[in-house]
Design a protein that fits this description.
Number of strands: 0
Number of helices: 10
Strand content: under 5%
Distance between the termini: 67 Å
Oligomer: single chain
Helix content: over 70%
Largest sheet: none
Order of helices and strands: HHHHHHHHHH
Radius of gyration: 31 Å
Structural class: mainly alpha
Shape: flat
């Protein structure tokens, strides 16, 4: 890299940094305005009483700015659903996520610029700019990628708890409990048995105690979690709560269908594993076995032909 080009690249990097800080300031200003409007609508408090001078107010501003950035990269509004599926329902973890959404691209771009300033000869200008673009994309979409992976992992854990959940529901309904009483009992007693479902049904129980409709609350839970096995069970509970009828047999039928589907999935995994093992045996074990069995005979024939030729 020539010495004449280096100052221009530094100036360009600083110019991009200033533009980024300006855009971040605009987003912070918009987030602050939205917060003031929401506070006035909700609590009718004057804007002068807002706690923006303390650390909590600063974190809230950063989180609101992260939400603004998230709306730019998440046009389908997938993040709120992923937060629920990942178990991040409360305000604190969601605030942390949105702060990470804001800070991660700034940190990655700042790290790339810092490393480049220390060693400018390691990357020419086009490569440096490509690193900046890739770093910005990773900072913008990386948090949502890890959030999606966490949500998928938690969905799998919830799916593994569904069979035991059905068995407990059958026992509670046979004991004469209603749907609300059964869910409340599972919330109180199932913390160690159903850790993931217990957290979700604790929210459901609070909503029901606040006067929520059982059918609507269970439908919202089904749409939020999006776990196929659990959706079938919640559909049975909604139907029985609305229209009445016997619930033990539908739950047992759902359990039977679930176990049958899991047996089929296990067989598919076993067949796929057998196919992969066959490929491994053909590529590695069969040549080794061929050398072990036919090797001595091949050596003997080679030595015999060599002796006959001499």
């Amino acid at each position: 890299m020539s010495s004449e080009l280096f100052p221009w690249l530094v100036a360009g990097a600083l110019f991009l940094t200033v533009i980024g800080l300006g855009l971040m300031g605009l987003l912070i200003g918009r987030a602050r305005r939205d917060r003031r409007i929401r506070r006035r609508l909700v609590s009718d408090e004057p804007s002068s009483q807002e706690p923006y001078g303390n650390a909590e107010g600063l974190i809230d501003e950063l989180a609101d700015t992260g939400r603004s950035i998230e709306r730019l990269v998440n046009t389908d509004r997938e993040t709120p659903r992923l937060l629920v599926q990942a178990g991040l329902r409360s305000r604190e973890p969601q605030t942390v996520y949105y702060v990470i959404q804001l800070v991660s691209p700034i940190l990655i771009i700042g790290l790339i610029v810092f490393v480049w300033v220390l060693r400018p000869e390691a990357a020419p200008a086009p490569i440096f700019l490509s690193y900046l673009v890739v770093g910005a994309l990773v900072g913008l979409f990386g948090p949502r990628y890890f959030l999606r992976k966490r949500a998928e992992a938690r969905q799998r854990r919830i799916a593994t708890e569904v069979p035991l959940f059905i068995h407990l529901l059958v026992l509670l309904f046979e004991a004469g409990l209603s749907t609300r009483q059964a869910l409340a009992s599972l919330t109180r007693e199932g913390r160690g048995t159903l850790p993931e479902l217990n957290r979700e049904f604790a929210v459901v129980t609070r909503q029901l105690e606040a006067g929520g409709d059982t059918v609507e609350v269970l439908r919202n839970l089904e749409q939020a979690l999006n776990v196929a096995d659990l959706s079938h069970v919640l559909g049975v509970l909604r139907q029985v709560d609305r229209y009445g009828g016997e619930i033990r047999q539908p739950l047992l039928e759902a359990l039977g269908a679930l176990e049958e589907r899991r047996v089929m999935d296990t067989r598919e995994k076993v067949n796929a594993t057998a196919g992969r093992m066959t490929v491994v045996m053909v590529l590695f074990f069969f040549p080794a076995l061929l050398i072990f069995v036919a090797g001595p005979a091949f050596v003997t024939i080679t030595e015999t032909l060599r002796g006959a030729g001499s």
